[in-house]
Write a structure and sequence with these properties.
Three copies of one chain form a homotrimer. The first copy, chain A, has 424 residues and is of the alpha/beta class. Helix content of chain A is 50%, strand content 9%. Chain A has a six-stranded parallel beta sheet with strand order 4-5-6-9-10-11.
């Protein structure tokens, strides 16, 4: 057995905790193949290949109709990594045996998937087959966090709305309801945010999390400015761009302060521009500007040495900065391979750099970012194969490590650090 | 036979259409070795290695003298990919058998090349040996497009002069002559541009094309502003930097509008700064600023869903953005490996990313960018070898595809998409 | 023997000149293991992994105590390239036979290292074992350059203080003392700087050198502005940010002028932001902003065709620009793999690009950047292994070169160009 195969076999036997997903714990597994093919990775690629948005999102179509419309486009994306996930899911979970999903075979696949998904323990089957010991969520600030097992489906407080969207009336309304408060100044807003942290902390929260546009640079805002913009936004007045920046910075800085108080890591997902392609399909509209630097986070990383910042970067051109900042700042940790960087060519190179220059204790290897449970399996499988190959070539082959020692490193990156960094 | 060799053999048997060149259809093949060694890739490298510009460009020297001056410098660049093209051309076309072109052997090579090039069907020999079924051109807006077979040498309307150089008197003069018009406002200018499109359309044009500096960001310009700057420039007045930007944007936007009307793809070649090295040799003066983002094209990509934009990026740090934008925007297509990115290390990585994340229908694998026909062979050969290796390692090796299926993918990227995207 | 092994064997037999180090020629080799483990690459990684700065830098601790505090953290960084250098040094120089440095074995290692280092000819042993024929230094402008053999420990004039820190009283004081002058205008400052060049030239200086922040863009400053800012800074007045920029530009431009006069290469190390992590350990506070472009050096490269600029870039995202600028500008040379880019994944890719597109005469392959002599061995060993692999795979394997020809290329890049570019 080659070193790669030996290491991969060990890594495949590991049970995992998935530290970042968008799972709805009340409906974690898929109900039909439409839940899988409806994932934006497929709808946006099908749309990119020519399928009209209104074909995909037409109100009232059945799940089977939706799949039937997407399938003809699959031939145009079968080269993609995303397609390889689809195929692996169908093969592993539904016994699919062909090497392509076509207009000729999709209905049988749809039906066999439906049969499996209809089994009462389907969610448990998926979790078991995928080796998942825990799944982190992405919860809106006003999520009641009830009705599910928070020790398995672990809450994370997602804060994009608080930092960037308090100027929207519906967000303020949700906020006021969730916090039972009507802030008129910065102290009031901070108190109210504190209530959210208390609520989440009481429900096993493990991280505060946010996605950030490339132009954002956190800074502390003076109290007078904060009071002004908080007063203005909660009175319903429109903010100037500059005032919005101050408000975002004030809220963001407050979140970091609560991360100190509540001893929470603060997941930063840096670099996304929202709604770049305005007529794109649902969740298929966001892109980015690679001209972003972690130097924008200098003030933050210096001001909060007590807070661990697991950082994800959207552009692969940011990976070396991430490696360097994690090498220097004790509170910066590398976190997974996000979105447009979540394809093998970038994962491999980014992983090599991290393994070569970041302390082994400061790397969270991978998260699935999934919306439905079935995706953890192929995505982690992709990562494990890449990781095994790097460990075999570079550590066993070039540095002369034993396979056992290489597996220890892989295990720490895949599983151990999730527990040590987020708590277990 | 290895999978790589098997796939390469199939890819090598393909006949090609070269979708972007600078061929002069009236003098497509080389007449002496000076036409090959005079390519800026060699003159600039020789100059970079120490040969004075006036040695290379001295008026009145014969082609043989020019080659004789360049040859001694070749030993300094024999490591480069560019040199490997030269060697391959000499070996394949002229029966050169040494592994280096030296001061001792170049004259014999020069003479044997001359003998071949003097054959009356040399152009056809090169096309046949290179497997070319079509060669796209880069035509000035005032090119009469006569005297050659436009079904083989396919016109493309190059528009740099229109967008960036109408403030030059000689460009305006050429423009007024070509369009038989004297625009004084934006409507007049647009009408005149329309005449160019009509002329090109009548001559089998397949694309509008432009190279763009890193600081350019297309936007629609309001009519009043457009009228002012058009009036000003055609009256011969000097434009401010801001006015020049408005003029460039107005013309560029008009070109996109005509691409809708005439159903033409709009080739964008993004990222070049002209005349950075002011004392460089001819065509060896341009460089770039990698700080450019496709977010600058957000307005354009959203405004023209009917236009296909084959996009080339100059800096490899832009490739992931290109992949992501092509993954999301239906009208963005990846196009070749341009200039400073046209060396194996970047081609390989960029190709991997594109094959992993862009629909297979939306990738134009390669173009030669050549000035003389002989260059298609070694440049496409370089690309085919890299493509075969990726297909073998990644698709056959890692994903378990058959070699046949991998060859289909390679064929589509190399040839099929050129026809489906530009028309055949 | 594989081609890689054959080439590596030849490259390992080469004797070297190390063209950029921070060696103190009066104390070049280490005295205890603390001199090695005290290198900022280890202290910053240990700190990043959790060791408090005051543990590392506590005044009064013995070298052995310092090592004892760092050793427990080594288990967290044994994956890094930096750790692999440490292990290789210990194995080669001190006969260390374990595969990890642990709390159980470090004291024996410390003692055996001490025994070796105490030998009177330790410095010569290290130089001999490392195959070093010369070591370039980084000298402060006021270094007397006495008491050592400048034909072996070759002076380089480091100019960061002059360009960026004349506004500090202590730097001005050192400058006035070193130049025996009190400049009040730009001519006076330039004369004084000239004295430094004369002093260094009299002592075998081989380069002027500087590290530059990403926001710096050299330009010529008009005399009136220069007079004003020079007068102001030497009168002790505080400069505005804009005035500081003018002063920096004036001094920088003057340095380039003296490089013409004294026929010196000007080493540019582009891209570092100082003191980003303000509470970091000694020399472990600097990071960077990847948003820098060599276009910022357009005016400089054009204005000084007589000066050779060996350029190092801090971010790997700058490597393609460096390759392209060295391909076009005769006076731009690629120089080594600096700091955060000095790990295998980046060295390999950057080296491939340089070998594929930059004349072989214009590449300085590697420098160690070391503070203590023992580091040259593992750092150059890392580079030689990567270089041998590239030469074997790409030049012998893909291009059909003989191993001998590949070794010639490697030899030129590793050794020959250091002599031809810096003088021998």
């Amino acid at each position: 057995m080659s070193a790669t195969a030996e290491i991969l076999s060990e890594l495949e036997s590991l049970r995992l905790i998935d530290p970042h997903t968008h799972i709805n714990p009340h409906s974690a597994a898929s109900e039909t193949l439409a839940d899988i093919l409806g994932y934006h990775y497929y709808t946006e690629l099908a749309h990119s290949s020519g399928l009209a948005k209104n074909q995909i999102e037409e109100p009232g179509i059945t799940p089977k109709e939706k799949v039937g419309r997407l399938v003809p486009l699959l031939s145009t994306i079968e080269n993609t990594a995303q397609y390889s996930w689809l195929l692996e899911m169908c093969q592993v979970f539904f016994g699919f045996e062909d090497d392509r999903i076509t207009e000729a075979n999709w209905e049988a696949l749809y039906d066999s998937a439906k049969t499996k998904m209809d089994e009462s323990d389907w969610e448990q089957q998926v979790l078991e087959r995928s080796g998942l010991d825990g799944v982190y969520l992405t919860n809106d600030f006003d999520d009641p966090l009830t009705g599910f097992d928070t020790s398995f489906y672990v809450p994370c407080l997602r804060t994009d709305d608080l930092v960037f969207h308090l100027s929207k009336a519906d967000v303020r309304e949700r906020f006021q309801k969730a916090t039972d408060s009507a802030p008129s100044d910065s102290a009031g807003l901070k108190d109210a945010i504190g209530k959210l942290f208390a609520h989440f902390k009481a429900n096993n929260v493990r991280a505060c999390a946010i996605s950030l546009p490339p132009f954002f640079a956190p800074e502390q805002v003076d109290a007078a400015t904060a009071d002004t913009v908080v007063g203005k936004v909660f009175s319903g007045a429109e903010l100037t761009e500059c005032e919005q920046t101050s408000l975002s910075r004030f809220v963001f800085w407050s979140l970091a302060e609560f991360c100190v108080e509540y001893e929470l890591p603060f997941d930063l997902m840096i670099g996304v521009n929202r709604r770049v392609y305005e007529d794109g399909v649902f969740q298929g509209q966001d892109l980015y500007d690679k001209r972003v630097s972690l130097i924008q986070y200098k003030a933050l990383f210096n001001a909060f040495p007590q807070v661990t910042f697991p950082v994800s970067v959207l552009s692969e051109t940011s990976n070396q900065e991430l490696v360097s900042y994690a090498w220097i700042f004790p509170n910066v940790v590398t976190n997974g391979h996000w979105w447009y960087s979540n394809i093998p060519v970038f994962i491999e190179r980014d992983t090599r750099a991290r393994l070569q220059a970041v302390p082994r204790t400061k790397q969270v290897g991978y998260y699935s970012d999934m919306y439905k449970l079935e995706f953890a399996l192929p995505k982690f499988a992709m990562y494990r194969r890449i990781l095994a190959r790097i460990l075999a070539e570079e550590f066993v082959g070039q540095r002369g490590w034993s396979a056992e020692k290489a597996v220890e490193l892989g295990t720490q990156v895949l599983r151990g650090n999730v527990e040590s960094i987020f708590g277990s």
